[in-house]
What we know:
The chain is of the alpha/beta class. The chain is built from seven helices and seven strands; from the N terminus they run H-E-H-E-E-H-E-H-E-E-E-H-H-H. Helix 2 (31-42) crosses helix 7 and helix 3 (79-90) packs across helix 4. It is globular. The model is unreliable at 1-9 (pLDDT under 50).
Amino acid sequence: xxxxxxxxxxxxxxxxxxxxxxxxxxxxxxxxxxxxxxxxxxxxxxxxxxxxxxxxxxxxxxxxxxxxxxxxxxxxxxxxxxxxxxxxxxxxxxxxxxxxxxxxxxxxxxxxxxxxxxxxxxxxxxxxxxxxxxxxxxxxxxxxxxxxxxxxxxxxxxxxxxxxxxxxxxxxxxxxxxxxxxxxxxxxxxxxxxxxxxxxxxxxxx
Length: 206
């Protein structure tokens, strides 16, 4: 099993996770580059702004302390890919899944392949991911309305460490995108970027 501790714990890089199943893993193309630039400008990170794409089953995922995954629809992990992702996560990696609307039933099912004995649990509002840099005392901010539900942050914990973050009914990635894509007000985009910076800071330091 490869280990992050020997390969890149000092690295500060992020990648988009490409998955099978037909879901649009490539959606929100400007989101992650904008978040990376925001972090480099505001929280003293030094992340490569040329964002790479890695596949779930590839050992390339071990080069990145933080993987970002998004989309609207179906997700499918082959068994060996699920094993690879589990090894990555328990070795120190971090996966942020941002539901772009419609992912929830698929990703919930596929994560059972990764952690068969571990459920997604709602993350309490006092968890340090909500205050890593910027304070969000009410938890995950609402960025985009789809069906009027409150935003929720779910997680999978391994030995007390948050290893998977699933942001639901929030759509952070839409807030990270170029302003003209969704015409979000500046204060909404700022909230999304600040929460994103918290995720990056937490992933790099825990």
